[in-house]
Amino acid sequence: MSNFPDLSSHGFKVVKELGHNRVGGRVTYLALNRVNRQPIVIKQFQFAKGNATWSGYDAYEQEIHILQGLNHPGIPRYLQSFQTADGFCMVQEYKKAPNLAVPRSFDADEIKQIAIALLEILIYLQNRIPSVSHRDLKPENILVDENINVFLVDFGMARLGEGEVAMSSVAKGTLGFIAPEQLFNRQITEASDLYGLGVTLICLLTGTKSAEISELIDDDYRINFKHLVPKLSLRMLDWLEKMVELKPKDRFPNAAAALEALRAIYVIRVPEVRLSQPSLEFVAEKLGERLTQVVMINNPVPDTVLEGHFEVAPHLSDPPHTPDFHTWIAFGQPKFAENQVLCPITIDTGKLMAGRVYEREVLVHTNSQPATQVVKVKLQTAPIPVALKKLPLLSLGLLVCFAAAATWVETTAWAGIINKSGSMGVAIAVFVTGFVAMFGLAAAVTSGMISKLVAKVRSRFGIALKTLDAAIVAFFAGAAALFVAAFGAQFRAPDAAIAAFAAVDAVVFMAVFEGENITKSCLDRGFSKRLALGVSLLAAGLGISLGVGFKLGFSHPAVTAAVLGTSFPLTLMILYPPLARAKRISNYRRSQDHLIKP
Asked: Mind listing the domains of the chain with CATH numbers?
């Protein structure tokens, strides 16, 4: 047997119970019209049950009177009313839609759509003459179907016009949704229903149940909800706060003003992060140097505030650190809550190894989407404090080539002269060779003075180094060649031999001058005088040995001994600087073992 009332005599069949208030004796049923089989809603007031009194009948008469004058698609139509043996029934249009107290998920745009629909219903009510105040706006009295069609129901507390409220009516309201002026029995205005609507929207946005709304109300009866809606736009926050202001004069004056303000508002507006640069590159020039660069973050989205903080991403080589502290990377403004942020990022290289490349990631956590941005940091620390000295290898190679060429050509030329002139050729060879040696020695002795003169000319006229050196070498070599040619012509030596000797002279003088340049270059680069002279003499000696070898053959024991005797120590001298530096670097690296690795 069904416990539902039998209303067949009135043409209705009760299908199920939709809701009830046992204390007040009110029960709401879903029923079918026996004639057209259309579903309808029947609200029954049972006078003989619970604490029901005949004052409830007066409330029903008031509700019927109001509903009879309303015609809005968002308000279920009043159909009829009738009495039963144990009460009074009112019949309304049925809307297949659950109320907002039923747990559901709405996105931001849907909640705004619900708010607009309810405000349009309130505008309709407030534009009536006299105006209608619902006075009980809460999730349970608002129906929303799958297509976000909105319906306002239960006008049991509704009143026509403005005025004071009886305390008996206040008791029927739902605490937390009742406007303060209604709660304290003061004059009701068009701003009163806005309070209940604002609280209802806060429940939807925060996922708060009607029965738990008191958890958001502080000791001053203000609703604190901002912390529960971090992605809500600033304008939407301001709009909601204005809807639930304690004083009616601080709210919107009516539903039309609230709707006009709401239409232009984005409910959810997420800040955007724009970084001035996606990566930072630091280059240290001194050990222990502190380097700073500034990262600018901008949020161009209006009605939002960018909030966040900086953090260095964990790295295997770094000591353990917290979001607020890192061993060698520091932030001038680690936390921020503004739309334009200038954050200095400082690198302390005093805790890092020299001559290394460090790469880290700085994480920028914000309330934007995506929530984390990455700034790559690349650091080149200062070079190892061990001087890098290089021998003038190109000049040494040229000296070896000059000496080898001069030796080969000279031995070939004098061999021809001796073969043609006999003992006279030997005398000429001895004399001229000695003269050339003396001239070369004199050139070497005076090379320091010549070098100083050359340096002054370079600085005065800005002439390129190699250009001036070549001109000086050509001048001295040409003078020697002319002298030797004139001297050889007196003994009627063959023209070919004299010409060859003149060429040899030029090469010899060039070799002498190049050897002086090598010595000076080595000294300028920080090498000892002994090493500078050693590499110059050994390079010249190796060239001479190679020149003789090209003439006599490298299989000759004396030639082999000369080549090995000059090339081996020259190779050791060339390898000594990089090997010595590598050893010093290794020692320095061992002293850095306590520092942070890349």
From this structure: 8-93 (3.30.200.20), 108-263 (1.10.510.10), 274-380 (2.60.40.10), 393-583 (no CATH)
CB neighbour class for 317 (10 Å; exposed up to 12, middle 13-18, buried from 19): exposed
Query: Are 315 and 347 a contacting pair, CB within 8 Å?
Result: no
* pLDDT tens across the length of the chain (598 residues): 567 888 888 899 999 998 877 556 788 899 999 888 899 999 888 765 555 455 556 677 888 889 999 999 999 999 999 988 777 889 999 999 999 999 888 998 899 999 999 999 999 999 998 899 999 999 999 999 999 999 999 888 888 766 554 444 444 557 889 999 888 888 889 999 999 999 999 999 999 999 899 899 888 889 999 989 988 888 899 999 999 999 999 999 999 999 999 988 888 888 889 999 999 999 999 888 999 999 999 999 887 888 899 999 999 999 998 888 999 999 998 999 999 999 999 999 999 998 899 999 999 999 888 889 999 999 999 888 777 778 888 877 877 887 777 777 766 765 655 565 554 444 444 444 444 444 444 444 444 455 555 556 555 555 444 444 544 544 454 454 445 444 444 444 444 444 444 445 545 555 555 666 777 777 777 777 788 778 877 887 787 778 777 877 788 788 788 888 888 888 888 888 888 778 877 877 777 888 899 9
Asked if 133 and 153 count as a contact pair (C-beta separation under 8 A), the reply is no
| Phi-psi map region of 572: left, alpha, beta (phi>0 left; psi -120 to 50 alpha) | alpha
- Whole-prediction pTM value? 0.56
226: left (phi over 0), alpha (psi -120 to 50) or beta: alpha
